[in-house]
Amino acid sequence: MIAIVDYGVGNVRAFLNIFKEIHVGAFLAQNKQDLQKASKIILPGVGAFDWAMEKLDKSGMRDTLDDLVLDRKIPVVGVCVGMQMMANSSAEGKKPGLGWIPGTVEKFSNLDNSHPLPHMGWNTIQAQKKDDILRDIKNPQFYFLHSYYFSPADTDHILGKTYYDGAFPSIVNKEKIYGIQCHPEKSHHWGISLLKNFSKIGT
Q1: How many other CB atoms sit within 10 Å of the CB of residue 106?
Q2: Residue 157 catalytic?
């Protein structure tokens, strides 16, 4: 069963509806006891970095998530701010991140007038290497809404790039840990395909 971490941040019902549509078992995890039932994890996120980290800390699920992801190697995908929370730190805030994938979150800079912030709307993702999460997704278009991006310490952890007056990492990956800057739950059939691929990872 896929646990969608419900800590008061993100479009949790949208994910739940998609998994129901594609006949994949999923549920909302609202405490550490719920998380123990997870075979895979979705960590959604919207809003500011520090606010999201504070909400996760207050949920009481952070230590259990660390155990499931780092020790038990349960596959996980972080979405938007959920991806950024996987870094060590963010230029947007002062709180430490989860540190699941070494790196920092940086703000877009030196954009020209034709590339305002936030980066909002439809854009492509160019795969940097083969991975099951992108299997059979042709010419994908995904929905983005963000002003910050994940910059991994090791460029080998960059799985996909997107261009917005220059390239930035839009999918990062380390072992079974994935971070996706776009919103697959808002990206029509491309996003549904990505979530369906994730549901099959490790099976």
Answers
A1: 16
A2: no
pLDDT at residue 169 greater than cutoff 80: yes
Catalytic residue among 119, 146, 157, 183: 183
User: Model-level pTM?
Assistant: 0.95
Secondary structure (3-state) at 157: helix
Residue 145 to residue 46: CA distance in whole angstroms: 9
175 classed as catalytic:
no
Residue 129: count other Cβ atoms within 10 Å of its Cβ. 10
> In sequence order, which residues have a C-beta less than 8 Å from that of residue 156 and are 6 or more positions away?
none
Domains and CATH numbers, the chain: 2-200 (3.40.50.880)
15-53: b or e for each residue (b if 16 or more CB lie within 10 Å)?
bbebbeeeebebeebbebebbeebebbbbbbbeebebbb
User: Is 80 an active-site residue?
Assistant: yes
**Which residue of the set 182, 185, 188, 189 is catalytic?**
185
Q: Out of 21, 80, 106, 188, which one is annotated catalytic?
A: 80
Is the confidence at residue 202, as pLDDT, over 80? Answer: no
| Token pair listed for 46 | 């919207």
